[in-house]
Amino acid sequence: MLQKTPDLDSVVVKHNRILPSLGKLDLSELRLLAFCLAHIDDSTPEKHHITARVDDLKRIFQMETPTAYETVRKAFMSIAQKPLEFEDEHETKHLRLWFSGFSYRKGSGEFGFTMTQEVLPYLLALKGSFTLYRLADVYQFSSALTWKLYENLARWRKAGKWEVSLDELRLLLGVSGQYPLWSDFKKWVIDPSFKQINAKSDLMVVYEPIKRGRRIVGLSFVIKTLDASLEVLPQSPVFALCDLLKSAGLSTKTAMGYAERIDSEGLTESMKAKLPAIIQRSQDKEKPAGYVVAALNAELRQMNLFDDQKSAPTHKAALDCWTKKRQAGEACTVRERGKAGQRKKCQICLEKLPVAEWGV
User: Fold this and answer.
1) Same domain, yes or no, for 245 and 197?
2) Residues 120 and 28 placed together within one structural domain of the fold
3) Contacts of 195 (CB under 8 A, 6+ apart)
4) Strands 110-115 and 49-53
5) Neighbours of 117 (CB within 10 A)
6) Which of 194, 234, 229 is nearest to 8 (CA)?
7) d(Cα 164, Cα 185) in Å, to the nearest integer?
8) Which of 75, 87, 268, 281 shows the greatest Cβ crowding within 10 Å of its Cβ?
9) Could you give the count of Cα atoms lying within 13 Å of 243 in the half-sphere of its Cβ?
10) One domain for residues 3 and 130
């Protein structure tokens, strides 16, 4: 009996524990596996046995080859040589096969497959720790590296953030031991994959390097799901702030950088309340985006976001005074050069906010 016909809206679900095992799969294997998983869900009768059409596979992944069946056969055979190995709670599991059987009906364009009973618990009736996406979000990927990076990013879409070491990321992408130089890893793996993910999937992602001294040891990702029709848990509030900053003319990277730093200190809501007034004042400035950035920096310094001390600084009153004047476009006579006599009135301001740093 033919099962449901998958299309671009079909959903693929995998338990997070098995994602690291996918690093060894190539693009044809990833496509075949996703296509097979799109046939099953918790309500499918005879869940473990599925009949599928080669033409559906060709249509979804835009395969023009007339030998699609041979591609499917080779992918099944190849996956059979790559068993699952993953950590499950307090033990390491080794599952020998994804599929326990494969058959092809000559002249019909149909093939059958049977999922093993051992792997089904990691594909059905999942609660909590799973990764979910649609075929529409992966079918255009032309690289296995892009696909695997996407799946790992999709795993963290609920949190909106993901930090990972470069060594672990290489392992997850199946290139462990390769691209030892960050410049090569960035050029040949990260940047091409991000270009496709941001252009052809439901995710918008930016990243910042994590440094240890001058050495880059990991990456910090900020992840947004663009398509609200996909049922996922609420997004990180950092994106509302990012969108607000982008509306003020900031680039996506700059806006996301400020939004993430503000959110990490738990000040997203307070800054969202202040931003409309700042943006409004920026409209009559020669460089509105530059004004917003300057105002943001002033607000962040005032709130002492980036210092270890969390109490109000001793120079807060002087800082408040100077910040208000700057935002209003007024000159601070105390800070002006050539009026040394007046500087004593705000000596603490001069000590804590030196002219060389602030450029006034």
Assistant:
1) no
2) yes
3) none
4) antiparallel
5) 10
6) 229
7) 14
8) 75
9) 9
10) yes
Tell me, yes or no, whether 3 and 91 share the same domain.
yes
End-to-end alpha carbon distance in the chain: 78
Continuous segment of H or E residues that includes residue 267: none
Average pLDDT value over all residues in the chain: 79
Structure tokens, 341: 């006599």
Q: For 236, which DSSP code?
A: P
Report DSSP state, residue 1.
-
Helix, strand, or coil (residue 13): strand
Pairwise pLDDT comparison (236 vs 65), residue with the higher score: 65
Whole-prediction pTM value?
Answer: 0.64
Angle between helices 144-155 and 191-200 (to 10 degrees): 70
Q: Which helix (H) or strand (E) holds 86?
A: strand 84-88
Helix (H) or strand (E) holding 135: none
Containing domain of residue 342, as a range?
315-360
228 vs 136, more confident: 136
Cα 316 to Cα 305: distance, rounded to the nearest angstrom = 13
**DSSP-assigned letters across all residues of 14-72:** EEGGGGGGGGG--HHHHHHHHHHHTT--TT-TTTTEEEEEHHHHHHHTT---TTHHHHH
- Give the number of domains in the chain: 4
CATH code (residue 61): 1.10.10.10
Helix (H) or strand (E) holding 11: strand 11-15
Task: Answer yes or no: do 160 and 44 share one domain.
Answer: no
Residue that is last in its domain, among 210, 232, 254: 232
101-151 residue pLDDT tens: 888 877 778 888 888 888 888 887 666 678 888 899 999 999 999 999 999
Contacts of 264 (CB under 8 A, 6+ apart): none
Give one DSSP letter per residue of 181-218, joined into a string. Answer: SHHHHIIIIIHHHHHHHHHHSSEEEEEEEEEETTEEEE
Model confidence pLDDT, tens digit, residues 78-87: 888 888 888 8
- What DSSP string describes 151-185? HHHHHTTTTSEEEEEHHHHHHHTT-TTS--SHHHH
Same domain, 212 and 270: no
